[in-house]
Fold:
Amino acid sequence: MKLEPEYCYRAVQARDPRFDGKFFTAVLTTRIFCRPICPAPTPKLEHCRFFVSAAAAFQGGFRPCLRCQPEVAPHLRMDPGTQAISQAMSLISQGFLDDHSIKELAEKLQISDRHLRRLFIQSLGISPVVFAQTRRILFAKQLLNETPLSITDIAFASGFNSLRRFNEAISQTYGKTPGALRRRSPEQSNSTPEISLKLPFSSPYHWESMVDFLAPRTIPGVESVTPHSYQRTVEINGDYGIVQVEPVLDKTYLRATIQFPNLTALAQIVERLRHVFDLDANITEIEAHLQQDSLLSPLIQAKPGVRVLGAWDGFETAVRAILGQQISVAAATRLAGRLVETYGEPLPFIGLDHFSNLSRIFPKPATLAKVNLAELGELGLFKTRAHAITSLAKVLVEQPNFFQTCSPLEEIIQNLCKLPRIGEWTAHYIALRVWREPDAFPASDLGLLKAIYPGQKLTKIQLLTLAQPWQPWRAYGAMHLWMKDFMTVEIRTNCN
Structure:
């Protein structure tokens, strides 16, 4: 990505928050790099260099600013069409390279390691290894600032394999020891520590629309939604926990509260929460494009910052989509609750008082793959729908990385439609939420077909024609249409 120095410098002079996360400014005289909103005096242009990422600034020999804290800058997603590198960055941020090689990462994405390295150099000017090293250091700095964890816990939670290497990396980067950097006194960790962290985003962010979408789809026992919070149970590698996400008034971050026994999974939890709430979207660019359309412009003006809700777990969301075929949202939610109550694992501990309504983990693929269709029928599932769920579960047992493959949208839709009872609507919905495909568009959705013109139902072809100018962000257009009038009418979805 090429940065124009004069363009970037004007944004720095204005301390324009719309550019926060889009680039970083490195100062040659101090060897420090900052966010565009840094309150420090603006250096002269000839003393500045601009980088597209914090990792690139690191590689250039600059250290992070302690005032503007680059570790909490928004993590803006790459441009559409770069799914491979976006997915690679996400996996690295979850700590994949802490225990795996570049070759294994490339294999997981179904590309060559040489091509993966080429993508990183072309897009960020750095290698995947440098990106991973920077991720560890910045996440460690955030944990030092925002949590009461011990230095040892922070070292392993941020992906370092030893305390010595952690101390060396922090000292070399910041010129201070980890203890000297932290802003609060450490406390003793317990078996299920409750950690609070910031999840930064680029404003605007329309929290209310996320709640409106989530509330009717909340899976009983697994999720809980209020106007001011989202809570859910989580399971990672056999460990169980609970997370909560809340908006913070007049701040450009959400607040995540995480109760999980294995601190080495902390980075993975944070990254997955960022996916769920679409915090890496370059929303100003997306909405500037969509507002050129006369149909979407008034919707965006009424609700700026509407995001595309992601998925905590691909299998869970796909099953929920199958359950929602040709029935109301409320009916599908009831079916999901029965499925969880019957086959979901109970939490092995009693949560805190504010998590008291969360009790189970969503059933795993290995569990549902063995279930008899007649048993699912007793829960109220039609035989064809039960067959679709067990078939999908068997695919996940055989291919655990099924939802992490890196393919073009058309190929994703084709592969999904090969599975029993998954048609075009379901495939696009899964691509939209699980793969976070910005151009996925379930054009046969009855809610979308009726949302354009009041009292009139468009055909699928008519809707696709109207939505063509929205590319490559049709998913965001769909979210605005779904949010129209706060979805006062229950939508019955179509499965082709």
User: Anything to note?
Assistant: The two ends are 40 Å apart (CA to CA).
